[in-house]
Amino acid sequence: MENISPIGIGNEGRQVFWNAHSFEPFLFLFTAIAMAIFAYGVYRRWQLWKAMGKDEIRWDQLPLRIKSLIVNGFLQVKTWKDAYPGIMHGCIFFGFFVLIFGAAFDAGEFHITEPLFSWAFLRGSFYLGFSFLMDLFGLLVLVGVLMAAYRRYVQKPDRLGYKGTPDTTTDDAVALLLIAGIIITGFIIEALRIHATKDAATGYAMWETASFAGWTLANIISGMDVESAKTAHKITWWTHTFIALGFIAYIPYSRLLHIITTPANHFFATLKPAGYVEPIRDFDTAESFGVSKLEEFTWKQIFDSDACTKCGRCQDGCPAYLSGKHLSPKKLVQDIKTYWLEQAPLAAAKAVVPAAEGAEGAEAPVPVEAAEGAAPEKALLGDVVSMHELWDCTNCMYCVENCSASIEHVQKIIDMRRYKVLTEADFAPELQLTYRNMENNSNPWGIGAHMRGDWAKELGVKTLSEDPNVEYLFYVGCSGSFDDRGKKISVAFARILQAAGVSFGILGTEESCCGDSAMRGGNDYLFQSQAQANIEIMNGYGVKKIIAICPHGYNCIKKDYPNFGGNYEVYHHTEIIADLIAKGKIKFTQKLDGTFTYHDSCFLGRYNQVYDQPRQILNAIPGMQLAEMERNLSKSFCCGAGGGRMWMEEDVGDRINNMRTDQAIATNAGTVAVGCPFCLTMISDGIKDRQKTESMVALDIAEIVVKAMGIEETKAPVDVCAS
């Protein structure tokens, strides 16, 4: 069997139909030109990447970064989370990956007169398998292209646009046509070769069926004379060659650049815990705080925007966007990218001007289009990112969790908020009151700090000042201490711990606000003062283990307090309850009949991956039937209270909490179980707004467990405190 390749630039055309040696110099020349265009495009982009942004180390811990590159850059794990686009992208990516290696394999076997490196594998059964795989993966690429075209130009899902307006460009169509052109011409080459080399007496050799796609096409053109087939083969072979080389050259100048930037972004992805917020570390020396200009972002924050593929997964579950507000995480990132592309060329050119002027033979300015003149002056905050967009975000982390390119949206938003709050003192009046209350009384409601431990007086719960020799500090938090509805959660959980014989204490009046709302609302100075006050007290008592009923405090103490010397084992109360049930320390004596649904708190689920324990608790309670909402687990819908939004009004679009309540109502459940005081308030308000108070109630898991344990009701206040 002769050495032949089933698809693409193969030696069958060169060996069988014309003198390959005479054309090889032209092929090498055109390939070199395409690679030079590609290299220049990447170089030009690299100049832009390094032109703006502060330093940030993103190449440490190489084993973990390589793992991220393999898992998400190559295996496409994040992309597969959505079935249709995952399959679509997988067909194109893996198909092309195999074909590229197949082409390289084939090229290695044919090199001038002898196989390169003495390779000679394309023989016998190995060749048959090779042919079959090349045709199979070629068809997979075509399937992926057709799926992409159907999705983009027929289905037109909203997430591929913005508020009903598609953001498709000519570039999208060109990319799909180039990919399809490479595969289709490759199959045609194969078919023409099979047809022209068939045995005149016996017809096609049976082994040609291994190249099943080309063999099928060869049967379709069986009436073509051999000389015409040879001529068509030559023309198609060069057409295929130019399309393939054009594809390579086009990559750095098109959306296909994500072939490079997205895997790179997976490599550079943060290795910090999910939702970690980098604090301001230079309060004593900085002249301004936060970000108001592109160059005040880190280089990685800017690079994020160039890695964005505009897939819209972030927008698809963003509560702000879906409730009709201004924010779209995709649009925000793309707007930053557009602004960066306007500003970076001039910055890149200016960066080398001093060198060009200061020494003979120094590097000349970067040859980029916009270097000749400055782009129109625009403000990052106000012109590029509107104030509505900036404050619409609930910090729910849906965008970050579901982004297939490892883009970090939330930190950017917090950094820009910091500038408005700390440098310009420009933020919503509601937040001004909230921050003032936190400064004066260490809680957002402004209730006297001396009342922080009043909820526990009738329970006999001791403070650490009374008995520091306990296993756990129960960090109650502001809601559990001051909000009437939140206090019921504190009481319920304390009674559970007492019944299970757990050693715990509280800080009482020594406890301060965790500071989460201040930090995520842009007031990092206030956050750090609250955090440091807590850490000083906790460390003074030698605290090692902490339990929190509020996921915001839980997440904050667990991930952000270590920046200031607060290193503790931190647990959410659902983790503790689930463990106590598993150990047999909690016994259920009451059967709770009815249908329950569970709302995944953003700061418990996406931030900390606590999905199983709340469900384990509910499933362990006799009589209960658990019905899941359509949006659950990592794709759960936010209640609307995170990112400081608990203290702000929603003046545009639908109320996020009402939308989440509607999703709960759709399950026909009588009880919505939650694990967060903020969520409890928001869902309870939603139940009232939807006039479902007679058929539905929202309860914290601790309250449900207390009922199932048959523990006597307490006299704690039951009125819901208005947010």
Textual characterization of the structure:
- The protein is mainly alpha-helical.
- It has 3 domains: 215 residues, Up-down Bundle (Fumarate Reductase Cytochrome B subunit); 130 residues, no CATH class; 280 residues, no CATH class.
- The chain has a 4-stranded parallel β-sheet with strand order 4-3-5-6. Strands 8-7-9-10 form a 4-stranded parallel β-sheet, with helices on both faces.
Largest sheet: 4 strands, parallel
The total of beta strands comes to 10
* Helix/strand/pairing category: mainly alpha
Number of structural units classed as domains: 3
Tell me the β content.
Answer: under 5%
Strand order of the largest sheet: 4-3-5-6
Distance N to C terminus: 79 Å
Q: Which stretches are low in confidence, meaning pLDDT under 50 for 5 or more residues running?
A: 1-21, 361-373, 714-723
Radius of gyration: 31 Å
Number of discrete helical segments: 27
Helix content: 40-55%
Mean pLDDT, nearest integer?
88
